[in-house]
Amino acid sequence: MSDFATIVPWDLTAGGHYGLGTALVGLQSTANVQSTAWPSANQAIFAPMRLAAPVTVYKLIIGAGGTASGNFDAGIYDRFGNRLVSSGATAKGTNTEHILDITDTQLGPGLYYLALAADGTNNYIMLTPAGVSPVPLQKARLFGTLEAATAYTLPSTVTFAARTTALIPAITALFRSY
Length: 178
Known about the structure:
Blueprint: E1 16-19, H1 20-24, E2 31-37, E3 44-51, E4 55-63, E5 71-78, E6 83-86, E7 90-91, E8 97-107, E9 110-118, E10 123-129, H2 135-143, E11 146-148, E12 168-169, E13 171-177
């Protein structure tokens, strides 16, 4: 008998999800998760998503905060800044998650970015890494989040920039194997 556990391949036959709350666990022990004002009108925030197997993404979910005004656009980009899919401009509700049907998009193994852009500074469910400044911003950067200052609605290509705030939007991709 081996001293090591049996390694089982990632099983996507029934489908799955990639959510930033789960991904952040390895980066920090706690995070503030709350309804928070979007950092800047027309700003987009990009959070990394690494896939180990090919999948088809068919929905995106974002957390709407306490205000019901404004619009957002959620999507997925490749590592070069090319938009692969997005929801398009969507009116924001309040205190609920938005489950967005998107065009089924096949993604191979690799690095992608979940993207969220807002046209104003209304509230969204955001994760803020724990710690005293400048630690939260450093954690957000270490996690690999990026941003773009003028990216609402999500453009077909974007030039990623370093983060200026530590806020990370609550966004999840739903997928199934193909």
